[in-house]
Amino acid sequence: MSDDGPTPCERDLDRMDVHELGRLGAHLDDVEVVDDAPPHPPGSREERRAARRVATWFALSIVGAVAFVAVFVLWPWQYTSTGPDEAITSWYTPMLGITFAVCVLSLAVGLLRWSEVLVPPDVAVQERQDGPSPPIAQRTAAARFVEIVEQTGLRRNPLLRRTVLAAGTAFAGVLTVTFLGTLVRSPWPGGGPAPLLVTGWRSPGDERTYLRLDTGDPHSVTLVRPADVAVGGLLTVFPFRESERGDPERLATVLRSADDPVILMRFAPGTPVVERAGQEDFHLGGLYAYSKICTHMGCPASLFEQTTLRILCPCHQTEFQANEFARPVFGPGARPLPQLPLAVDERGYLYARHDFIEPIGPGFWERDPRG
Predict the structure, then answer these.
(1) For the chain: N or C, fewer Cβ within 10 A?
(2) Residues sharing a CB contact under 8 Å with residue 238, sequence separation 6 or more, in sequence order
(3) By the 8 A CB rule, do 127 and 71 touch?
(4) What pLDDT score was predicted for residue 83?
(5) What pTM does this model have?
(6) Please, are residues 199 and 355 in contact by the beta-carbon 8 Å criterion?
(7) What stretch of H or E contains 32?
(8) For residues 99 and 110, what is the distance between their CA atoms, to the nearest angstrom?
(9) Span 209-352: which CATH code?
(10) How far apart are CA 307 and CA 172, in angstroms?
(11) 350: part of which helix (H) or strand (E)?
(12) Please, which residues have CB within 8 angstroms of residue 179's CB and are 6 or more apart in sequence?
């Protein structure tokens, strides 16, 4: 503490205003205030104009927060890979990101502009002092805090005060809705097979789901026979049911489905194969079918190396050993590619005996980490 001059008594302190107490506190702490002039004269037209501009950013943050809550509550959010609601549902996550970004960025810009155009710079130099502060320093420090609040312009600008408080409350509401909503919202409130747990290979009733090739014509149907797969070869196939043959929209939609592509391959006779427990009868001779969706990030695992019998995902280089139940042997993938059980009908066409017995693709919250 500086020893220059006498220490003011309590009566002297009571006669000082907030600004004088703040300067006294700075002097007692060996602080030299270089510049604390407000950017605009208090109460001036320029200050009011600057406050309105800052308040606009806070108002935009409020709009973003309200829009986020509206999207979170009202927008169709349940996952669907096909159907008329696919496009609307696919925008759920992007809309959450857009509205959240508007809320947070507007709030950040508003605070930044507030500090630039309304709050005094308060440039000061202070010598470091050791030891606890005396009571007079504590009182002057408290006065300095009050002075800082005055300098922010909150008391002089009710519009600024209301919008910054509302924007902060709206942002807190966004965080609250996000936290509580994820705890109480069920991904499948209707019960039954959830979209993330089943695929288009699930056969309703007794109808068979056949393996179909993509010939380039989305409305054509070309089924697969075992002889269509060469030794060491690989085909990409999609599900097809006879009830869909006269439905052009459904035939085209299946080819765009995110979770339906399957890779079908044939191993050469004598190839050593390790079967996964519980899936020993999923293959048909040397024919094996695996989900094409990588279990790391959902990219298409579409490359096949015949010499090593490895399926490669080109996105992050995960390699799956095809003749060992497609288990991951390299890269970030942690789970084997799910295997589709195969059978052949009386006409010689391949079909799926049933859906995958585990979810395909990357992990998600409700998924069993073991499968």
Answers:
(1) C
(2) 200, 211, 212, 213, 214, 254, 255, 257, 260, 261, 262
(3) no
(4) 56
(5) 0.59
(6) yes
(7) strand 31-35
(8) 16
(9) 2.102.10.10
(10) 57
(11) strand 350-352
(12) none
Q: What is the mean pLDDT of residues 319-344?
A: 94
| CB atoms closer than 10 angstroms to residue 206 | 5
d(CA 368, CA 42): 62
Q: Which uninterrupted H or E stretch holds 164? A: helix 158-184
Q: Please answer whether residues 165 and 319 qualify as being in contact, where contact means their C-beta atoms are separated by less than 8 angstroms.
A: no
Q: In the structure encoding, which two tokens stand for residue 337, read together? A: 């590619």
Task: Give helix 45-74 / helix 158-184 axis angle, nearest 10°.
Answer: 20
189, two tokens: 């409130």
336, burial (CB in 10 Å: exposed 0-12, middle 13-18, buried 19+): buried
Q: Locate the domains of the chain by residue range.
A: 10-184, 209-352
Among the listed residues 283, 243, 279, 248, the one whose alpha carbon sits nearest the alpha carbon of residue 264: 283
3-state SS class at 111: helix
Q: CA 76 to CA 72: how far, in whole Å?
A: 9
Looking at residue 336, what DSSP letter applies?
P
For 327, the enclosing helix (H) or strand (E) is: strand 327-330
Q: What integer pLDDT is reported at residue 1 of this predicted model?
A: 45
Query: Within a 10 A sphere around the Cβ of 172, how many other Cβ atoms?
Result: 11
Amino acid identity, position 223: L
Q: Which of 199, 208, 216, 217 is nearest to 244 (CA)?
A: 208
